[in-house]
Design a protein that fits this description.
By secondary structure, the protein is mostly helical. The protein contains four helices and two strands, in the order E-H-H-E-H-H. It has one domain. Strands 1-2 form a two-stranded parallel ribbon.
Length: 147
């Protein structure tokens, strides 16, 4: 069966669910990395966020190989993604800036920062995935041959 014949309706909550599952895996790896690389806290955070992005993108690409992803995203939800990306980005930036503070050398603080910031990275990834799916769906609709 061709993917075009079997559209799969994916809600935006599914993107967040996939991203949060990736976040759990990355957080466990990040704990060990924060313990080993005490001086490179910012690098560990950024690599963790990139891993969340990569893991989520990989799982969504695997899902799109099974069927065409369609979204129930409308204009209101699309505009709601903008503050979600803004909020998540602000938290990620704040985490990086706070990691330069004197109290950030504590291992417990670093683990807490990772567990607090990683879900916000997942929020950013899920919102961006919803927007990209919406754009791809609109392009696919425009490019569809007229009958």
């Amino acid at each position: 069966m061709m993917p075009e014949e079997n559209p799969l309706l994916v809600s935006s909550a599914a993107y967040l669910s996939i991203a949060l599952r990736c976040t759990l895996l990355v957080a466990l790896i990040e704990i060990a990395a924060l313990y080993v690389f005490e001086d490179d806290v910012q690098l560990v955070f950024v690599l963790g966020w990139l891993a969340i992005f990569g893991c989520t993108a990989f799982r969504l690409l695997r899902l799109s190989a099974v069927a065409v992803l369609t979204s129930e995203l409308d204009l209101i939800k699309l505009f709601a993604c903008i503050p979600a990306v803004g909020l998540g980005s602000a938290v990620l930036y704040g985490t990086l800036m706070a990691s330069y503070a004197a109290g950030a050398s504590n291992f417990t603080w670093r683990v807490k920062a990772a567990f607090i910031s990683n879900p916000f990275a997942a929020l950013v990834v899920a919102a961006l995935a919803a927007v990209v799916t919406f754009i791809v769906e609109q392009v696919r609709e425009i490019a569809k041959p007229k009958q």
